Amino acid sequence: MFTRIDIINALYYLIRIINLLILVRVLMTWINPSPRNPIVQFILSVTEPILSPIRHLIYNVFGYNGMIDFSPILAIFLLNFLFDFVILRLL
Hints:
Layout: H1 4-31, H2 38-62, H3 71-90
């Protein structure tokens, strides 16, 4: 049976992996890899469900739809906040 510490560790590593994939996605915008690459498709399929709602939130609240995408920064901040201040407080 899993203990609380096992659950916290699993969530910690899951959030770190998602943060890393978001960072890799940001770096991919600089090199513009082929969207047909399976690794690129995997990274996009994992990160897009997280970034898309944040992108819409930024547009709806602030009306910003500029050249710089702030959704990865906000997503990483929210994931870390979720882990540090919500999950650790509940468990």
